[in-house]
Protein 1
Amino acid sequence: MAHSHAMPSPMALPGVSKIIAVGSGKGGVGKTTVAVNLAVALSTIGHRVGLVDADIYGPNVPLMMGSKEPPQVGPGNMIEPNVTHGVKTISIGYISPGDKPLMMRGPMLHQIIRQFLQQVNWGELDYLIIDLPPGTGDVALSLVQTVPLSGAVVVSTPSDVALEDARKALEMFAQVNVEVLGIIENMSYFTCPHCHQEVDIFSRGGAERTAKRFNVPFLGSIELIPAIREGGDRGLPVALAGPKSPQAAEFYGVAEKLIERADAAAGAQDIIEIQ
């Protein structure tokens, strides 16, 4: 790694208003499901949205968005993103499809992240959502060196193990000076289809308590419902059903809160710059 003075300084993407990373401390908490449904929800309520699948080793966005098209390369060697469900999307899964595991080292990884941001023809976007790989590794660092992030969202389940890892993600974002716009509790509770009682499989409320403890906003909880997984498996994210759908409503609630938080963070930034 070069010395700190050689660190590339992040460059804004022309035409892109807010860039938000979605991260988690560990795998298996449904981070990509949340990223995809947030992107679709933001797009459905009228925002221009892009989605970067920065999970280079396990890209699930193509499956969940239901799109396999290899991207076209346009003038100036710019990559044209796929447009699926109204969202402009790029993923390594479009470029090297199939089940071949990708063996990549740090510098290569950094190169791909840079390309996905700077060499894709994003056009005008209100939100660019970036689905990070699980954990707190190189990709997040590459990201903050490449573009100025408006903030990050941390996804966790209510289980103690996931929360412990979510705290690591919070610490990582703090270390690289990225504001955490909020925590989302995924797979929060399950409603029994027979007796309609809510069952707390993973001890609900843990993420909200963690958010309070770390003084980070809580953006909401997403119920554990088969329709969410089925939608992802079929490439039809549940958020496509719209804000009035009981299965999708929570994603829209989270999206609204995220918009509010992102605006507040941007406002605070402006004040700091004015001073």
Protein 2
Amino acid sequence: MSKGQRVIFHVDMDSFYASVEIFRNPSLKGKPVIVGADPKGGTGRGVVSTCSYEARTFGVRSGMPISTAYRLCPNGVYLPVDMDLYLEVCERVMNILRGFADRFEQRGIDEAFLDVTRRVKEYDSPESLVKAVKKAISERVGLTCSIGVAPNKSVAKIASDFKKPDGLTIVTPDRVKDFLVPLPASKIAGVGKKTREVLKHMGIYTIGQLARSSRENLQRILGKYGVELWCVANGTDESEVYEGEQEPKSLSGEHTFEIDVDDVLMVTKTIDAIGARLAAQLRDSKLLFKTVTLKVRFEDFETFTRSKSLSYHMIDESAITGAARNLLKEFEEDKRKIRLVGVKVSNLQRFETSPPTIKKYL
């Protein structure tokens, strides 16, 4: 890296849940391991949480319905999610990574950003520091990771996904634009289906096309997010590696029914149960919410989300369930059975004293 340039690592654990299971049971090595719901011979509910690279050769992917995964890979090894174990291993991995970073930012259970600008001086090059990180994780946890190295966070994250598993991709400042130009715009974190459709309508398919687009036009169509995309595409992302515990942006819960249901009472009771859990989490975390989102997935897997923002930040369970029940009414005329229902609270705000209640505003 050039003098004065930041050196950012993005560390992404390879197929984390499946890798932990394989380390626990080495006889699974080389087999298509699929972690998630019970497939029940192809009739199971729920989705794939993650899978080994061997399973991916059959077309299995994270988030896929478990019944589809079973159809694609009936001879795979299907394992339930053991979150307690994964969180324990996660803590060990993150403690290792912290030891190599000037500044450290954990993102989820299996990835992190490291600002190593000063640390690189202690090594011959970023590559030698990467090798030290990989060696420490391999020897102390028994897992592999893929690492992207770049002068900013967004390029480092894209680079970490470039060669997997156990990959290393270094993008020096003078190579940033050449590296980004040919890649699909979907490689940018946060560019999902809806944004891809908007960009496609604008004739934008690659990061290079996005970089050459009008910043003002992107802002007009996509708002502040459009400006952020333009900066990422041009390699000018200046966001800092955040050191410290980040506030959650949302809390959510969902439930996949064992059998598709058309019983409204059962669905509303499920919404109430999720709402109760979310309210408890909010109280424990000293957080208020303002927005409630309902997620409904029908028997044909078509999925809808609907949101309602309240007038004030609140904490009440009844405010969560009441808003979610009202949002459910939009689907009363739909005769399809429901496969999954979920509730999310967002637009969160911390409170230090007694939180306001819904009764105050009735």
Protein 3
Amino acid sequence: MKLSVLDLVPVIEGGTVGQALREAALTAKAAEEAGYHRYWVAEHHGMPGIAGAAVSVVLAHVGHATQTIRLGAGGIMLPNHNPLVIAEQFGALDALYPGRIDLGLGRAPGADQRIVRALRKDVNRAAEDFPADVAELQALFAADRRLPLQATPGAGAAVALWILGSSLFGAQLAAMMGLPYAFASHFAPDHLDGALKLYRERFTPSETFDKPHVMAAINVLCAPSDEEAQYLASSQDQSFVRLRSGDPGRLPPPVLHYRDTLAPSQRATLDHFRQVSAIGSPQTVRAGLEAFQQRTGADEIIVAGATFDPALRRRSLALTMEALGGEAGQGHATAPTGDPLRAI
């Protein structure tokens, strides 16, 4: 079981963005030391509790604190951007941290309609152009001479491309292009099984992959006891309920028996969101991860989650790896030379 880390770079109540970024570097370093394979940051906009909007900048910062763990976007919402600019940003990251850079691509805007207006572009049209933009990015990294302009940096960069998804569309595109596929089941569990089945059935071998390669996301919070883990998880539970209520904010401190305070409709929504989770003691988390891996047949699992005290997230990562007997660290990357896809 190969494990990776998804970090939203949470900003806690009473904290600052600067503090969140410093904690992100510490978390990435802890993940590397524990044997996790990748550290990914997701693009979200207009969220007071998430400091990772400028993904490439965050990854450049985190790279200074790490040596071997792969760094990536999980992901970049490509309709928000020009492919040339993304090629330049991730080409620069590859130059700084050779053979360690992943670029997961999604077609959602990463926020509500406010981001569409703020970007001053037709994001809906850009979403329709997503497959063509992915192909353009491939050409930019490959230094395709048919392009009118080469990306500098970017041309010739060994950046590993992924397609992200929470529906069937991304599965179809990843299969058609012969790219690895990551499913966001940690917050969108409904289409998990159908998307993975579709991806595997329709996969077309490419120059970089001759068979399907799947990564699936799961919420994980590991503590010495089930009770403590559930208590700590109430911080992200509160954030999710507030988000769904239209009142997002910074990550709050945990609340004992938080679920008991919710209306039945809120509890049902939270339980639906938490479908794909492993929250509890090391034994509980191990059982949850093994069941998830058996269900999905995933080549890799990426763990999401947040705690009000960032040190307890790092403890969770260490306990999770220990619960698996260190097995997850066996596939850990060590800054490969040449084509990074060999170590994907």
